[in-house]
Write a structure and sequence with these properties.
- Two copies of one chain form a homodimer.
- Helices cover 44% and strands 15% of the residues of chain A.
- By secondary structure, chain A is an alpha/beta fold.
- Chain A folds into three domains: 44 residues, 434 Repressor (Amino-terminal Domain) (Orthogonal Bundle), CATH 1.10.260; 135 residues, Rossmann fold (3-Layer(aba) Sandwich); 148 residues, Rossmann fold, CATH 3.40.50.
- In chain A, the strands form two sheets. Chain A has a six-stranded parallel β-sheet, sandwiched between helices. Chain A has a six-stranded mixed β-sheet with strand order 7-6-8-9-10-12, sandwiched between helices.
- In chain A, helix 10 packs across helix 11.
- Chain A starts with 5 loop residues before the first helix and ends in a 7-residue tail after the last helix.
- The mean pLDDT of chain A is 89.
- At the A-B interface, helix 4, helix 5, strand 2, helix 11 and helix 12 of A face helix 4, helix 5, strand 2, helix 10 and helix 11 of B.
- The structure holds a DNA duplex.
- Chains A, B: Keywords: DNA-binding, Transcription, Transcription regulation.
Chain lengths: 347, 347
DNA sequence: CGGCCTTTTTACATCGATGTACATTCGCTG
DNA sequence: CAGCGAATGTACATCGATGTAAAAAGGCCG
């Protein structure tokens, strides 16, 4: 038997279609009796609203798109989990996309291609530039995650990456380390998480009266374990001396731990290692990983909240949009074995 | 200005709405000239189809739901990546959901709640029972992943878990290990990935003429690192002796590695460790992890293919559905340091 | 150049739910 | 118990795209 429609429920309950709709949508002025009759009819027929019809009529889907570089980078998976949880609480469904850190994909997300269902987009860009945002044609409500592009184009949520990197670097300096390699760093001005963290690294060094050496900023192709391992191998092969690594994310750090192990270097005795993101793997690695833990739950919660505001705003029509909202989420440095050794680790 | 509709394009191009629709959908009988004029109008107005309208009319959304226990378990993230990639190739969009391994959530997915947009569902259940499937009301095309429930209710794709576990166990036996703990095992008959792997473990032991000891099957609450670590700690505390661990997934194995390290046990000298899934972290752990590598790409590809068949079938109407298709994806044992030590590792 | 067949284009109904505007019913007050 | 305002319920149009069926245009033949 075909799936029942609102019409069938109406007939069965002996009321109009609109009344059924009113019951479904909890419209106030429906008598208790009518409500009950309709509910029973719905139950008996096993009726469920057809979302396509509703969406066409309402112009809203209740779907938000979450666009991240990769799902199999644990940080993004954990972030996605958080966003899904918060979105569900607001009766939103999340459509997850990945861009492979590809600019084309990110642009497509901006214009809502394939996210076309979505009422709004939460985007964690890696390759996007400020120009891309300036020229954006789409008008889809948008929230950016991470310190990605110059501010001023859309709401965005991030931790204070400059400060976080500075603290992490200061921690290493406090342990007496002096030759710190910034793995994944980018020594160029401008926006971007890598740039912000590199800047924090630089400030910490200079704040301690140490010289900032651009050669100690070691770029990587991607922020994954293989690239962290490769960076260490390359740096050693190139004759670089270092007594600490500031890895710009945990994946790089975990890859680096492995490479250091293979080269017979002890962590933290020979080389101390810090990461960013506080992924679960860093809590079980050998040694466990000191890292900057962003308050992912706060990021997720604020992102959803901001997006909901924008969506509501877009629905109002007319009124000029509020200026972009820039939010900073908390972070903290979690000290583990990779900097202070096993005896001081806290589990 | 409001987003243009097909009507606006039609007016601008001086043709009917249907002709515009025909151009959009590459209908054959449209003259080249008309096609060009319409394309230009579309371009000029920046028109894009409204999916809600299309869905209502077509009754298909082009969305498939992928339902997994957790996104932040790397295996599922990697699997999701694969499925998204294959689905995109078929012009499908993937809506990812997670169930927290909760039966209620899995049931909801079966009936399409919140996946209501979807034309079909790919579900990786953990808690579902055969009865749940038997009583299922929904008629949404469905593909199951993993050796989850008794066969016969829906298409499903999995590796041969019994065989895989048998091979992994045989590998340990071949190294001379005799007291092998099955971490995450479930010593009860019936369907389920854990059950299948436990059975393979048992068969390998018995095939080698060794006694199967139910006490060596160590259940866990969840298949995550903390539980792997806890299992080892508990087993040691309980005075269990073992010279190898067959961990039923890599997360458990990685947690176990950490716990063994903390208890001063060397891997593989004192205890050899095997996992399942071949997640990236196991390629960079210290020591690297021997594991059963499922051909995830094959799983993803077959799952999408099966689902597409079912969706097409559902569209035909009338005809009785084809019997459930049971597919087996390839796997292989990847031997690394956690069983054979550093000197024999292959990087 | 009329007749017939094919190609191209169109008008209209339709998918399912809900907003609008109006009709009806109900409960009270005086 | 007439009359009035509030509470309920309904008919109909509408959201945007596309399938149906049929009209219009074009091509070819004798």
């Amino acid at each position: 038997m075909a799936r029942p429609r609102i019409k069938d429920v109406a007939r069965r309950a002996g009321v109009s279609e609109k009344t059924v709709s009113n019951v479904i949508n909890d419209y106030a002025h429906v008598s208790e009796r009518t409500r009950r009759v309709v509910r029973e009819a719905i139950e008996e027929l096993g009726y469920r609203v057809n979302l396509a019809g509703r969406h066409l009529r309402r112009g809203r889907t209740g779907i938000v798109a979450l666009v991240v570089p990769e799902l199999d980078i644990p940080y993004f998976a954990e972030l996605a989990n958080g966003i899904i949880a918060h979105a569900e609480r607001k009766d939103l469904t999340v459509l997850v996309h990945r861009t492979r850190a590809d600019r084309e994909h990110e642009l497509a997300a901006l214009d809502g291609f394939r996210s076309d269902f979505a009422d709004g987009v939460i985007l964690s860009p890696l390759a996007l530039t400020g120009d891309d945002l300036r020229e954006r044609r789409g008008t889809l409500p948008l929230v950016l995650l991470g310190e990605t592009v110059e501010p001023g184009f859309a709401d965005h949520v991030a931790i204070d990456n400059v400060l976080a990197a500075r603290e992490a670097t200061a921690h290493l300096l406090g342990l007496g380390r002096r030759r710190i390699l910034a793995v994944g760093g980018r020594d160029r001005p401008g926006p971007g998480t890598a740039e912000a963290r590199t800047l924090g690294y630089r400030r910490a060094l200079e704040g301690a009266g140490l010289a900032y050496d651009p050669a100690a900023v070691w770029p990587v192709a991607e922020f994954r374990m293989p690239h962290g391992a490769a960076a260490v191998a390359e740096a050693l092969a190139a004759g670089h001396r270092f007594d600490a690594l500031l890895c710009l994310n945990d994946q790089l750090a975990l890859g680096a731990l492995r490479a250091l192990h293979e080269h017979g270097l002890r962590v933290p005795e020979d080389v101390a290692v810090v990461g960013f993101d506080d992924v679960e793997a860093g809590r079980y690695s050998v040694p466990t990983l000191t890292t900057v833990a962003p308050d992912t739950d706060a990021v997720a919660s604020v992102a959803v909240e901001l997006l909901l505001h924008r969506i509501a705003e877009a629905g109002d029509g007319g009124e000029p949009p509020a200026p972009p909202d820039e939010r900073v989420a908390p972070h903290r440095l979690v000290v583990r074995e990779s900097t202070t050794g096993a005896e001081r680790s806290v589990r």
